[in-house]
Design a protein that fits this description.
The chain is mostly helical. The chain has helices at 3-11, 28-41, 46-56, 68-75, 78-81, 86-98, 102-114, 124-140, 147-157, 162-171, 174-179. It is built from eleven helices and no strands. Helix 7 packs antiparallel against helix 8 (124-140). The termini are far apart. The mean pLDDT is 83.
Amino acid sequence: MSETENEDNRSSMKCNMQPPDLNNFSCYEDFKDRVMLWKIITDHKPIKLGPLLANALPNVSKLFRNKLATSLLKKHSATELYVTNGLDLVIKYLDEKLGKSKVLSEITAFESIYHYKRQPDQGIVPYISEFDLRLNTCAAAGLKLPDSVAAYILLLSAHLNATQIELLKGLIDVSKENKADNLY
C-alpha cells in the first residue's frame, strides 16, 4: 500500500471521541484549549457539539463549582444548545462562570514563573522544560517577557551556586547572544 493510500485511509477514519472532562484539568484555560482541539478533530456534526459538551460537564467538582451542568441547562435549554453555534453558547457560559479576566490571567501566569524554583533533586533539563512551559503560559496570557529577563529569571530560580554561575558567565558571550536575540 502506498503512502498516499495510507494517508487516505487515516483521513477517512471516524473520530467521534467524547468531549474532554472538566474534572481532569487543574485550570479552566487548559480545559478550554482541549475543547477547542476536540472541536477541530471530532467528526460529530457541529449541531451536536454544544449538547455533547453540556452533557459532559460535571455536576460535582472538587475544583470547579458544583451544579455547573445544571446551571447551564437552567440558562440554556437543550434545544437552544442544539444549533450550529451551540458549542459557542456553552463556552461563553463557562467563560462567564470559570474564566479569568485578562489581568488575572497575566498575574496568575507571572506568579507561576516568579515562584518557580528548581528543586535540589531536579535535573537541569526537566527544570528548563518546566520553566519553558511556564514562560509559554505567560506569553499565551499576553505577557511576553524579553529574552534577557527570561534568561535572568531562569538563572535566579535555578539555585546555582556562585561557582556554577561564574562558569556559566564564562561560557556565554552575553553581548553577542543578546544582539542575536539568543540570550534565553
